[in-house]
Design a protein that fits this description.
globular; eight-stranded mixed sheet; 11 strands
Length: 296
């Protein structure tokens, strides 16, 4: 496998048709624009960029060069995500009214040896929480209002390590999201799904969806409903059933994403997460970061 000292040298060598951009967030625009201008299709790791202006320039460069641009929100490729969306869209829960989401675990100290993770454009909101923001957008619709509190006392870094977030979705549902990279817990995506070999699987839910007819644990997809016909009320017992296809399993989402990227590069499929879609998730996450920092 040939190696090149820069993206410019890689493009000049003309030995590739597509490029995966997995640099620190702050370099996504520079690398991505150069590759797009050289005609390379792009899979850009999330977030699409570290700020909105950079993301917009990257999207414009891909559009001008007529190359595919896929944003690496790999969690969307899990089979249980499609199943959860079908349950929500199909009305199984009734009208969605609320969501409770958690992402809390304790990172090891060596993780912070890379200085960019402690600077603006890094930190757990843009590195980690953006996954959850994107997933909630994917399942519940666009976010129209954001409130947040943030704190950095646990680690003492310049970036927020803990945040409490409130979201309102376009359909009216409200969500609370608790995030911390300084607190051990089983309530986070990695522990819930087992997709990351560095994080032991615990099997606890990381999200709970509340509707007028039922509640749903995610990613296990366990449905809680009142016994009897109709939506019921608090006087009736609750029963739980696993929805068909509910077992999470790792599902090889990164492999699925790569296969999809190859299809995008060959023009066979449209990007599952387009540049504008990735931009929308970035915009909501940056608003969370702004509010959390202001309240830290």
């Amino acid at each position: 496998m040939p190696h090149h000292a820069s993206v410019g040298a890689l493009c000049a060598a003309r030995g590739a048709d597509a490029l995966i951009v997995a640099t620190p967030n702050q370099a996504h625009e520079t690398v991505g624009v150069a590759a797009a201008q050289a005609g390379l299709h792009l899979l850009v790791e999330k977030p699409i960029a570290h700020d909105l202006a950079s993301a917009q320039r990257l999207i414009a460069a891909a559009q001008a060069a007529k190359v595919g641009l896929l944003v690496g929100h790999h969690r969307r490729y899990h089979p249980f995500v499609a199943r959860a969306r079908a349950l929500l869209d199909g009305g199984t829960l009734g009208r969605l009214v609320a969501i409770s989401a958690h992402w809390a675990l304790r990172k090891h100290d060596a993780y912070f040896a890379d200085a960019w993770r402690l600077q603006a454009g890094g930190g757990p909101i843009l590195i980690n929480l953006i996954h959850d923001i994107d997933m909630l957008r994917h399942l519940c619709g666009d976010i129209v209002d954001v409130r947040a509190l943030g704190a950095s006392a646990a680690r003492g870094h310049a970036v927020v390590d803990t945040a409490a977030v409130a979201l309102r979705f376009v359909g009216g549902a409200l969500a609370t999201v608790l995030m911390s990279d300084a607190a051990p817990s089983p309530w986070n995506w990695e522990s819930a799904t087992g997709e990351n070999p560095s994080v032991p699987e615990a099997g606890e839910p990381c999200y709970r969806f509340f509707g007028t007819a039922a509640a749903l644990e995610f990613p296990r997809l366990r449905l809680w409903r009142h016994d009897g016909a109709g939506p019921g009320d608090w006087s009736l017992p609750l029963s739980a059933d696993d929805a068909p296809g509910a077992a999470p399993g790792p599902g090889e989402p990164l492999r699925r994403q790569l296969q999809h990227f190859i299809a995008v590069a060959h023009g066979r499929e449209a990007p599952l997460v387009s540049g504008p879609d990735g931009l929308a998730s970035l915009a909501a996450t940056l608003e969370v970061a702004r509010a959390a920092v202001a309240a830290a």
